[in-house]
Design a protein that fits this description.
By secondary structure, the protein is α+β, with helices and mostly antiparallel strands. The chain has one domain: Fe-S cluster assembly (FSCA) (GMP Synthetase, Chain A, domain 3, 2-Layer Sandwich), CATH 3.30.300. It is built from two helices and three strands. The protein has a three-stranded mixed beta sheet with strand order 1-2-3. Helix 2 links the parallel strand 2 and strand 3.
């Protein structure tokens, strides 16, 4: 399933990158919940929730059997 998820994300990445952002696969758990990290302009975009649910999640649910949901990765702690 992981390879199918990554392949599907690669199909939609150009559209996200066109707006200055990006999406990165992090993991998929035993319940089919996919975790992604949003990068660039997407990381603090006002449309992030819509992009995640109406875009990424909708496509993965439609194209990859076993995917049940998509969530954002927890922000990493950055030390300065």
């Amino acid at each position: 399933m992981k390879d199918e998820i990554i392949r599907t994300l690669e199909k939609i990445r150009p559209y996200i990158q066109r707006d200055g952002g990006d999406v990165e696969f992090v993991s998929v758990d035993e319940h089919g919940v996919v975790t992604v990290r949003m990068l660039g302009a997407c990381s603090d975009c006002l449309s992030l929730d819509d992009t995640l649910t109406d875009g990424i999640e909708a496509i993965l649910l439609d194209e990859v059997e076993g995917v049940t949901a998509v969530k954002l990765a927890e922000p990493e702690n950055i030390l300065f």
